[in-house]
Please model this.
Amino acid sequence: MPELPEVETVARQLAPVLTAKCLRRLVIYDEKLAGIKTHKVANRRIERVCRLGKQLVLELSPKPNSSKQCWLSIHLRMTGRLIYAANSRLPSHPDKQHLRAKLVLDDGAVSLYDLRRFARIALHDSLVTAQPQGLDPTSRAFSVQRLTELLRISTSPLKPWLMRQDRLVGIGNIYASEICFAAGIHPAQSANTLNNNEIQCLYRATKHILRAAIKHCGTTFSDFQDSRGQTGGYVRYLKTYGRENEPCKACRTPILRIVQQQRSTYFCPQCQRR
DNA sequence: ACCCTCCTGTCA
DNA sequence: TGACAGGAGGGT
Model:
């Protein structure tokens, strides 16, 4: 579920409550999510909290008598949630059934809930191994030139192209449809056939949609919650996703749903012509 | 470049 | 009962 804006929301909320705190222990309730020796991260100071692609990453200080830092990455995949609760607020979440892991601090805890058990926690000894391959579209390195180069080498339809994490990171099924709509491009158009004008539109749409979604703390389509248990406010700005047969907000033409690589794509056949 | 699968749940 | 759900790695 969480794409770049949702993970960014969680990262921004957790950074102030985790940074400079001691991670007393990591408790794993479901081994499937994490094959980590939890003693390796216990009693380390959390130096930094950041987002890498769709992952949340905690930079942890070296243990005493060691110089080796490590990085704990958390990928929420489809249904993962990270919920923070101060000790004063416990007992916390009612959803004990889907509690998969817990980061215990002195004054509170972050609980990972995940209905479908796709989430993953991993430990890295360098930030590079935690890092996804692609370019972050919210970074300064993302330019029309870079986007043009990346598009040229692929014949993939645009919407599935946007979801590939080895080219651009962070875009998933919701924002891929929204970005295609904002750019006015048909989701099945081949990446390498976009002209300069279309690439310019796609570039602006990508930045605009992601920035707006971050501003509204992400999208809750069915069950995304941020670290405070709040739902994402961007859902009311969605123009295509989940709106099959509803009128296009620009031209009233019914929104279509098609399937591309087993995933739903929503678009307006009038605003996004081939 | 495509399909399937990993899981659990909801909804038509 | 079957389709579908924010993701991505593995196989062909």
